[in-house]
């Protein structure tokens, strides 16, 4: 009996050792297996800034191959600036998920994500607004190199505008979250002119939008969910939602709307959930939601 126990203990120690030897985590990072799969390793790193402590080039190349997920948290105690070079992550060519939080970037250089053919989900939240003067700037080539990216979260970055074609290199993009930035005009959100044809959700909540111009988001023909709450929208122009024929959920609550143009929902025939609370709407034209063959008229109005 005793010897059996010893053997079991011995084997598990051996197993643990062999596992520890197969992966040597960089300083400041912890590693774990994803789905119990040895070839899928997730790294969780807590560092001060990205340039100094997280030297991704130091990885042994046979190790970086196994990494499918990286979470990086920079210290937000001291406001040290982070910087990254083009192709910063290219040795991680099996990477599917990258989440960078609290690292203070001023800009994301061209080609920083080049080589990430398997990326599905990218989050960069600088929380730059903690450092009020610091905005994040993207250039039109900042996001090249991720042909399979489906989900992008750039919330809380103090973004004031985005280059016109910045999302064009992401043909698989479905979910875009730009919440809690400083965006003032939908025309400067980088999703128009054919770049967002496949977007399904767009979150622009908690920005500084003041108006929605006619056809401002036209081109987002697959868009099903649009979140505009907590902006400063006082004007919806006639035709504000034209082109959004797949729209299902629209949240324009907590804005400054006083009126809705009579035909504003004439093309969003699939609209099922509309949130308008916490505006200054007094009279809503009867029939506004029923003029089209809208699947569900909004109950309390029709
Ligand atoms: C966008 O991010 C915020 C903050 O994490 C989250 O609350 C919100 O649900 C996200 N939006 C969508 C559409 O998932
Ligand atoms: C809906 O209204 C807009 C703005 O008034 C107009 O340009 C568009 O042609 C209308 N669409 C339909 C289908 O009536
Ligand atoms: C809509 O926005 C309000 C804020 O005004 C928020 O409380 C609510 O959760 C949002 N609902 C959905 C479904 O997005
Ligand atoms: C109503 O809108 C104002 C202005 O956007 C916001 O500050 C407030 O939190 C909102 N109230 C609720 C209950 O969502």
UniProtKB/TrEMBL annotation:
Q: Which Pfam families match?
A: LRR_8
**Signal peptide bounds:** 1-20
| UniProt keyword Cell inner membrane, yes or no | no
Q: Which InterPro entries match?
A: Dev_Immune_Receptor, Leu-rich_rpt, Leu-rich_rpt_typical-subtyp, LRR_dom_sf
What keywords were assigned to this record? Leucine-rich repeat, Repeat, Signal
Protein name listed in UniProt: Uncharacterized protein
SUPFAM superfamilies recorded: L domain-like
Q: Which Gene3D superfamilies match?
A: Ribonuclease Inhibitor (3.80.10.10)
Q: Which source organism does the UniProt entry give?
A: Meganyctiphanes norvegica (Northern krill)
Q: Which PANTHER family does the UniProt record give?
A: GH01279P-RELATED (PTHR24373:SF385), SLIT RELATED LEUCINE-RICH REPEAT NEURONAL PROTEIN (PTHR24373)
Q: Name one GO cellular component term.
A: extracellular space
């Amino acid at each position: 009996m005793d010897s059996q126990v010893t053997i079991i203990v011995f084997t598990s120690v051996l197993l643990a050792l062999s596992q520890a030897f197969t992966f040597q985590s960089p300083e400041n990072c912890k590693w774990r297996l994803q789905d119990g799969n040895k070839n899928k390793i997730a790294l969780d790193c807590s560092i001060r800034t990205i340039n100094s402590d997280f030297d991704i080039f130091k990885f042994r190349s046979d190790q970086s191959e196994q990494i499918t997920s990286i979470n990086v948290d920079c210290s937000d105690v001291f406001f040290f600036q982070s910087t990254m070079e083009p192709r910063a992550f290219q040795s991680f060519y099996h990477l599917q998920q990258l989440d960078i939080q609290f690292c203070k970037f001023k800009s994301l250089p061209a080609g920083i994500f080049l080589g990430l053919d398997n990326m599905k989900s990218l989050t960069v939240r600088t929380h730059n607004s903690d450092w009020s003067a610091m905005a994040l700037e993207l250039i039109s080539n900042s996001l090249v190199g991720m042909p399979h990216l489906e989900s992008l979260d750039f919330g809380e970055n103090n973004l004031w505008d985005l280059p016109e074609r910045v999302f064009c290199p992401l043909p698989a993009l479905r979910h875009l979250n730009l919440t809690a930035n400083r965006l003032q005009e939908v025309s400067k959100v980088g999703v128009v002119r054919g770049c967002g044809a496949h977007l399904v959700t767009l979150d622009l909540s908690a920005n500084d939008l003041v108006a929605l111009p006619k056809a401002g988001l036209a081109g987002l023909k697959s868009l099903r969910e649009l979140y505009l709450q907590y902006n400063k929208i006082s004007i919806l122009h006639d035709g504000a939602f034209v082109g959004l024929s797949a729209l299902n959920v629209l949240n324009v609550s907590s804005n400054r709307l006083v009126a809705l143009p009579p035909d504003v929902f004439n093309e969003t025939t699939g609209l099922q959930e509309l949130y308008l609370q916490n505006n200054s709407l007094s009279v809503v034209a009867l029939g506004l939601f029923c003029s089209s063959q809208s699947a569900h008229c909004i109950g309390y109005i029709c």
